[in-house]
Predict the 3D structure of the following.
Amino acid sequence: MTGSKKAGLFGLPEQVAVERGLAEFRAGRPVIITSPQESSVVLPVDGMTDAVLAAFRQLCSPARPYLLVTPRRARILGIECEAPSGLAIGDLQGAAAIFSLAADRQRTRRVEAVGAGENAQAAIGLAKLAQQLPALLVAPATAAAHACEPPLVSIVAAAVSRFRQTAIESLAIASEASIPLSGGFLARFVVFRDGLGGTPVAIVVGKPDFAQPVAVRLHSACLTGDVFGSRRCDCGDQLRLALAQFGQHGGGIILYLEQEGRGLGLANKIRTYQLQDSGLDTVDANMVLGFDDDERDYAVAVRMLQALGCTRLRLLTNNPAKLEGLSRAGIDVFGRVPLQGPINSDNRRYLTAKAKRAGHKLDHVLGVLTELGEPGR
């Protein structure tokens, strides 16, 4: 077998490089991102220590790294832009000070914008794929960076934008088994696995008739609500309401998706909770950290439904975006079934933001607001 034939034996080199780059980011190490016009060395701020920062500065010398942030984060800092922006970090010496510039609610110092190169979008995309804060230190990749030991992973910028779709296409059933649930009905747990190592799960409750529209719940994993009964969201309530409906109507499917915090990841979700404790609502908290209000897409759910043979459904949701996402992908959605959980003093502001700012259909929340008045954000 010739060398050229071996090149793609275990996957396309550009895709494998992105997979390795994600592992490097999670380990707190930099990678090199290349495009036709430039080569950049990038380091995630998330988890960065002073020792790693010092090593990165040494690697980049004599160039001075800048902090790359999303347009949403830049606007929080008073910089109007429509694309990722660079921020001069000047003589900021510590990792904590740089993290503060990337994530704190209050701006404590004047910031200076610097040009971000053509690799900026790929760097932000890679951080989001790793479920890290979308903030990175960036500098031109010098000869020292290319000669680093152990070698830095090198990634083609264009491969990052293609990677998510490639990972979705790799999704396949890994295992399944029947498990009895409380309430007296049986469920089949179908575990999927993708090229990223993700393991979304389809829970087929009872015996739904696939010849008819099947009741389906797309449920983003929520450790705090689903497992521990958090009162500051309605996730656990919606999950239990969906299960109860399936039990009453002969079955249904829950797609349990690894989209904690509307796609931010668990660590970033808890960071938004800290910001909410300081007075922000859930939408503004996401934006302070540089995220969109909702970072999810539903291509994974479409792939799972197709693998199960379920392409006609009734969706149990309060979120119209889920219907639109599935319909655009060719899934026949025959209607929406609302899931209205209880309102309490801890989740009222969260539900208000979803109803008034994120477009969720929560008429019962709006009714309470009419009676009691809107809570402070």
